[in-house]
Amino acid sequence: MARDDKTGIFEEARPRLLGLAYRILGSRADAEDAVQDTFLKWQEIDDMAVASPAAWLTTTCTRRCLDLLKAAHRKRVDYVGAWLPEPIHTASDDNVEEKFALTSSLTTAFLLMLERLTPKERAAYLLHEIFGQAYDEIAAALDVQEAAARKLVSRAKSNVGVDQARYQTPRERQEELLTAFHAAIHGGSIAGLSALLSADVKLTADGGGKAATVLGVLSGKDAVMAFIAERLTEYWSHYRWETADLNGGRGIILRGEGADEIAATVSFGHDAEGRVADIFIVRNPDKLAQLKGPASTELNFWSKPNRDRC
């Protein structure tokens, strides 16, 4: 196979590999590293001996992600404060229902839910439930027997429980929330926002020890609203607000004086009644760096490999 054809096969698979890697790792930077490592290995192998390039690329990328995930978990032992996945730009397309599984599996709430799983359970669950891989393909990717792959997916489903973390409230409701949040910070009117929060709403902030923020998780409407009214109205009123599609839903990017200075992102998790169950704030500058470029859409697609091409 010519090198150009070989590169073309990889580039066609890249969006799917990047989407898989991000969901496993929760970090865009680490996901890109995993995909690049996969590309380098793909360039080195004798592709004539590969029966299915799509399966080979998925297997190689998954195994590299598992290696990186183990290293990431070791680093989180010393992480300062709460850890949240790295926020990413995502495209919105309300008219394409088949993309729901992919966009909903990018939410911060869903990615945090995956933290309950072992690395292999996490990979098996994503490969089967989100990317439509057959059990024999999952077994090959994880170097286990097919029966073991089935057990991994089954255990993952059991540990995850009811898939409430993937609930997406209608876009109109999300826009109403952004308006109410802005009014609470800038107008001093908190009643509108309070009415949209669940009684047991939680606020989690990730500063990584590099930006000032609340260290513990705030629980309950009273505690969350007090923090917003007493702290955020003072700290955030001078930032420029930009609404954006973040992790499959509508969110907020707070910008400082410089054109590329991003101070924080805010995203939300919702319950089945459409109320806000979680408020996620990321202030760690390392996790905000990827948002300085143009919005990216490639993480929304490729639920299944293109077997005709690969």
TrEMBL record:
<comment type="subunit">
    <text>Interacts transiently with the RNA polymerase catalytic core formed by RpoA, RpoB, RpoC and RpoZ (2 alpha, 1 beta, 1 beta' and 1 omega subunit) to form the RNA polymerase holoenzyme that can initiate transcription.</text>
</comment>
<dbReference type="Pfam" id="PF08281">
    <property type="entry name" value="Sigma70_r4_2"/>
</dbReference>
<protein>
    <submittedName>
        <fullName>RNA polymerase sigma factor SigJ</fullName>
    </submittedName>
</protein>
<dbReference type="InterPro" id="IPR032710">
    <property type="entry name" value="NTF2-like_dom_sf"/>
</dbReference>
<dbReference type="InterPro" id="IPR036388">
    <property type="entry name" value="WH-like_DNA-bd_sf"/>
</dbReference>
<dbReference type="InterPro" id="IPR013325">
    <property type="entry name" value="RNA_pol_sigma_r2"/>
</dbReference>
<dbReference type="InterPro" id="IPR014284">
    <property type="entry name" value="RNA_pol_sigma-70_dom"/>
</dbReference>
<dbReference type="InterPro" id="IPR013324">
    <property type="entry name" value="RNA_pol_sigma_r3/r4-like"/>
</dbReference>
<dbReference type="InterPro" id="IPR007627">
    <property type="entry name" value="RNA_pol_sigma70_r2"/>
</dbReference>
<feature type="domain" description="RNA polymerase sigma factor 70 region 4 type 2">
    <location>
        <begin position="109"/>
        <end position="158"/>
    </location>
</feature>
<dbReference type="InterPro" id="IPR013249">
    <property type="entry name" value="RNA_pol_sigma70_r4_t2"/>
</dbReference>
<dbReference type="Pfam" id="PF04542">
    <property type="entry name" value="Sigma70_r2"/>
</dbReference>
<feature type="domain" description="RNA polymerase sigma-70 region 2">
    <location>
        <begin position="10"/>
        <end position="74"/>
    </location>
</feature>
<dbReference type="InterPro" id="IPR052704">
    <property type="entry name" value="ECF_Sigma-70_Domain"/>
</dbReference>
